[in-house]
Write a structure and sequence with these properties.
The chain is α/β, with parallel strands linked by helices. The chain is built from 15 helices and 13 strands. The radius of gyration is 22 Å and the shape is globular. The structure holds pyridoxal-5'-phosphate.
């Protein structure tokens, strides 16, 4: 049996109050924090000497992530954030697609997924939600013969709705439409299977469920995607300089990495990126299935409590496969007052899209939820 009490101790934030804002950013567990400090200490004491060794560790990490999402190591790299990854894709489309086209996304999408496409003036079609859900048929209805891609989050940031990526991906593949996924609010808690989900490009910012702070975003692309769209911009580390490592020649031919390394551009914050390996190991030791079961149990308890109090729940709650750690609800005009009262009791939640969003993490427990419900009761 998992010792959740022991896990809670890895999160000192739990001593200060009740933290329900992991969908904004998870606190870093102590073992991962120790790894970050250790990585920075190496620079403090040894400077750049270990860069080559760290770069090898980085490649191993990309390989571990690739194995977890059922793809090859060459298809995975890190970029600064999801906004960068999506803007990069949008610019690639603008550069390479020469016939009229559109991109379909959802009305609730976090702007990091969509604003880069709007900025390039790519015609965007937004699917309206149905009771906070995006049924696959509603998405397909918005597509036509000119749809180049569907861009969607795995889990929606405001409502917690979790999309059925497998069936959506299959339907898009049958129609020859690219499938671009933002897994920021889901991975690594919820599984990604690139092959089974027919994903062409995926981005996942890790400061939420990756538990490593602002470490950047995983960026996955298929070899076919890279072949078709190249890279809209590059840097010195995008180049395959062979044994020389640094391409110093000017006005001379150069070759760009075939792999996702082309998107690495230049030096990265390896000190925190490498600590994601520690975060992965930490979470793997608990077990992702175990984590999902715990989250479902705790969110069930919260949902039952909210229902008992007659609170309007915005998140889809009926089907476990549509659920996530995020539960949003609304007290209408009393939302503001409610957040104020919660903050006074050191309970932190997130105001999002006019709702109150609670996100449940592995360090939360039933007592945390009771405290929240008790404040809601007094507001009501
Ligand atoms: C679904 C989703 N995607 C992306 C982000 C963050 O985007 P970026 O990595 O560009 O800061 C957030 C929240 O901050 C989010 O909820």
């Amino acid at each position: 049996m998992t010792n959740w009490k022991k896990i809670r101790k890895d999160f000192p934030i739990t001593k200060k109050g009740v933290y329900f804002q992991s969908a904004a950013m998870s606190p870093i567990p102590t073992p991962v924090f120790a790894a970050i400090v250790k990585n920075y200490r190496k620079i403090h004491q040894q400077g750049d000497v270990l860069w080559t060794e760290d770069s090898k560790k980085y490649r191993k990490l990309c390989g571990d992530i690739a194995a977890l999402i059922n793809t090859e190591s060459d298809n995975v790299c890190f970029v600064q954030n999801t906004s960068t990854a999506m803007s990069l894709i949008a610019l690639s489309f603008e550069n390479k697609i020469k016939t009229p086209y559109n991109v379909v996304s959802t009305e609730d999408e976090f702007p990091a997924s969509t604003i880069g496409f709007e900025y390039r003036e790519i015609p965007m079609r937004y699917v309206p939600p149905k009771n906070s859900r995006y049924p696959i048929d509603s998405i397909l209805e918005q597509t036509d013969g000119q749809t180049a891609a569907v861009v969607t989050s795995y889990v929606q940031y405001a409502t917690g709705f979790r999309q059925d990526l497998q069936n959506l991906g299959k339907a898009l593949q049958e129609r020859g439409i690219l499938f671009i996924v933002n897994a920021t609010q889901a991975f690594p808690f919820y599984p990604v299977d690139i092959q089974a989900m027919h994903i062409d490009a995926l981005t996942c910012s890790l400061h939420k469920w990756g538990m490593t702070g602002h470490v950047g975003s995983i960026f996955f692309t298929t070899p076919e995607f890279r072949e078709r769209f190249s890279a809209p911009w590059i840097g010195w580390l995008s180049l395959d300089a062979g044994k020389y490592m640094i391409h110093t020649a000017k006005n001379a031919p150069f070759s760009v990495h075939d792999s996702a390394r082309r998107f690495e551009f230049g030096t990265q914050n390896l000190q925190t990126i490498l600590a994601f390996q520690d975060a992965l190991d930490y979470l793997k030791a608990i077990g992702f299935e175990n984590i999902r079961k715990r989250i479902l149990e705790l969110t069930d308890y919260l949902i039952q409590g909210l229902k008992k109090q007659g609170v309007t729940i915005v998140s889809p709650t009926d089907k476990p496969e549509e659920r996530s750690p995020l539960v949003s609800f609304s007290l209408g005009e009393r939302n503001k007052e409610c957040i104020k009262r919660l903050t006074k009791e050191s309970i932190s939640v997130s105001p999002r899209a006019g709702f109150i969003r609670v996100s449940i993490n592995i360090f939360n427990n039933f007592v945390d939820i009771d405290k929240l419900l008790s404040v809601l009761q007094s507001v009501l």
